[in-house]
Amino acid sequence: MGWNFISEPPSAQSASAAIPRSGAVYRRDDSDEPAGTAAVSAKIPNEEGLPGSVASAADGSGAEGPPSTGTAIDYLYRMKAAHAAAHNGDPMPPAVVRATMRKLLALQSLYFEDSEAVSAYGDRGYWEALAGGELHVTDTPRRVSGGTTSTVAAGELGAEGYTIIRGGAAPSGDPAIFARLNRAAGALAAAGWPPAFLLVYDEVWQVLHCAAESFASLLGDECWLEPDLNVWALRPDPPAPADATTAHPEIYIGKNFGSSHRDMRYDQCHDPDTGAFRSCNAWVPINPSGATRQNGCMSVVPITKDDFFFSPAHPNHMATAAAGLSYEPVHLVAAAGDICTWLPSCVHWGNPCQAGLAEEPRISIAATFRSNDAPRSAYGDIAPRTAGTSGDNDGPQPVQRRNLDQIGLSQRLSYAAKALLAFSHWYPGFPGLTADRLERGSR
Question: What phi and psi, each to the nearest 5 degrees, are found at residue 281?
Fold first, then answer.
């Protein structure tokens, strides 16, 4: 999972102003988009509810301070700052800024399930053909059996903060499902789609359903799947360059988080009276070889090796990487369909995939489950379109365990959009994803 939603939130989370879902006025200029795709500079007028600085931000000029509204422009400012930090202070080129704004606006429309945006993605035959006919896209995925109960897992989570539930997310009677998902991830990438769009397929939701059945024994029958889902797909790390002082590490959508971090403070995922955990991270390898030390498994620091686990007020509780602390981690080597789970307040990180392996790079589904009495995560949320409103159009919502077979294509696209927006500062400019790809959808 990603960074803590309190210590590293998108500025959208604190926004209270009204947010439009569209309203962009586009000016075509074929020279703007890298890789030969037409681009636009987005200008959103003040009457649409956004600050007047949007136009200058979108064409790479103007002040760098973040605006006050929670919308695509907030993510643009963060991506520009991340790009500069990764490139020795060099600003994001104006052409890339303009193309990025187009991508953010398209993703924001999917996030809110706007009908025009969703209709552009609604050709189920396109998605099924892309997966070679091996996966399905329906509004009611076929229920599958799977999931395991384990008192040992509960004890390990409470004592050490992590465990592996063997086979906990593997649908019964379908041993080839992970090979099919792995092939579909490759087909998506070849067509220009980030790995998060694997969420459109029924089979991913069948895996999540099995995972939810496993977590019911840990978090209760009424447990919830949080809306901050993602799919990670690694690439083999290239050999280290001879001149490491001038080379930049490869950045791509789906890359691992290699820095130690916690997703939540201790007091955000434990009962304040009993100290019992109320949330669990779930990380399921879906490539046939699973997660190994070589292809990118997760590393977790046990509670017993973490001096600051029970000290949420201590500066080193959340600043795990900045503090320069050294840890004794456990490496979670797991088979496809196993659930690697840990408490969100445990220190963890993802490992890279080594080059030259016989096994395929790791691909994994990441999710968070919580008990019925725990507060929902707000990580990556965008404020509602109209201040003070709530309802079905406020973006991706948590899903209770019993309703996981009722998530249709529109909602799945919304979760995929949220995944890209929430972690956009890790992938400045969305490398490898073109605005044209997002705007065409399945057409």
Answer: -75, 145
Q: What is the mean pLDDT of residues 362-389?
A: 80
Question: Is the separation of the CB atoms in 91 and 62 below 8 Å?
Answer: no
**pTM of the full predicted structure?**
0.83
Q: Indicate whether 64 pLDDT > 70.
A: no
- For 232, phi then psi, to 5°, come to -110, 135
Q: What are phi and psi of 286, to 5 degrees?
A: -120, 0
Q: What is the C-alpha separation between 187 and 68, in angstroms, rounded?
A: 39
Burial 412-442 (b: 16+ CB within 10 A, else e): bbbbbbbbbbbbbbbbbbbebbbbbbbbebb
| N residues, the chain | 443
Q: 306-342: per-residue pLDDT in tens?
A: 999 999 999 999 998 877 778 889 999 999 999 999 9
* Residue of higher predicted confidence among 206 and 9: 206
Q: Is 164 helix (H, G, I), strand (E, B) or coil?
A: strand
Burial class (CB in 10 A: 0-12, 13-18, 19+), 307: exposed
pLDDT at 104: 95
Indicate whether 136 pLDDT > 60: yes
The label of the residue with tokens 């090979």 reads 179
Q: Compute how many other C-beta atoms are within 10 angstroms of the C-beta atom of residue 340.
A: 26
3-state secondary structure 421-439: HHCHHHCCCCCCCCHHHHH
Q: How far is CA 99 from CA 38, 104, 274, 428, in A?
A: 9, 9, 50, 11
| Cβ(281)–Cβ(343) below 8 Å | yes
